User: Fold this.
Amino acid sequence: MEEIHQNPHPPPWPPPPAAVPPYFRCPISMEVMQDPVTISTGVTFERANIERWFFTYNKRTCPATMQTILNFDITPNYTLKRLILSWNMKESCSSSSSSSSLVEYDDVGALLKNVESSPFKVSSLRKLRLLAAVDDVAANGVKSVFSRANGFEVLVGIVNQVVASESFDFANFEACQEALGVLSHFSFSKRDEKLFEMLSKPESIKSMAVVLQRGSIEGRFYAMEMLQKMCQNGYDWNLLTRYQAIDLFKSIFELASDEMNKQASTLMLRDFSTIPKCRCETLFSSTLKLLIEIMESSKKSRLRSIEAGAVCIMIDLLPDLNRSKCERTLHILKLLSECAEGRSAIAEHAMGIAIVTKKMSASNAATKIGVKILWLMCNYHPGERVLEEMMGCGAVKKLLGILNNNGDGRSSTKEKARKIMNIHGSFWRRFPCFPYEFRD
Assistant:
């Protein structure tokens, strides 16, 4: 007691560590996130925590907002991940010499020289990928260093080696995947003429197609991200020759139909860590988005994708998809059905009309897209086989149900259903299974 009275002002506590920005913390564990992902409600969580919430505890709500979840897609939040990496690097630099990060960036040139000269490129490329992940740490950034050291030419050259060599070389293939991993961290546009022009060449696109077809999960993610960036920056897919385009679409469709996206619960990476099923589903969702972007760009892209077997693969995938993936797949089928070749492929598929009809019940959006597909089929491909199949699989009954739904008013979907019935109603009324209440 005497000591307390003698020293009324005790020494201050050691200064607290720098405050962590609250949006860096996972809402579940309140720890700084290392692999942030965003769910359908727009909230970001640590991947391991939200996967455990959904797939171990079988929760169907958002842990932060308690909203009911219908779409369990998990999207990597690369922007936040880079911010967290940058913040961590700055914190570590503040406790050491301020030049430490600059030394790392000086090492970029040495690593690039090692990549050019050494046959053992993978370890150097991995170090470059880690540096690229924290691009905003140093004042100049990695991208400017890459430009000065001709780094992009080096990386694109490594990517293109996959198709340049006649025989498959595992070392070149692994280096290609790592080079794509480095490039995936850089943003670019048509204004970055040099990088965009190099990636736009047919051999670069073909190399990414090969990685989509044969690569590891990580490699496929990197290739998919690069192709999406090409799409977002207005790449003209018509520049590809017929055979190059078909090869690319075949690679994408093989990825879409891969069993890992539908059945595997876990997969092994080359570093022996496991990737849960939802990672594969995220890759599958990215595949569907890329297909939509490419097919919306031109009619020629749709024709090439039809040649590559798009219609059959999309129809075969539909039965096992959840709502959001079902809507995207139906949207792809709708784009394909705008071509005569696409409508023929749907009509020839044994389950084409039936599965489109069945999945119309998935959501209002699916109903709208499904009616548009049926409208295109009935208007431009109205063979007796198609009309009989529509009656047999319940499509006519669903169209009549849409017409009888007073809540829809005069929606475009209802108008299409009305036009279909006006054109072909007399044919369907001859069938004994035509609903009696609508016969007149």
Q: What stands out?
A: The first strand starts at residue 36 and ends at 38. The longest helix spans residues 277-297.
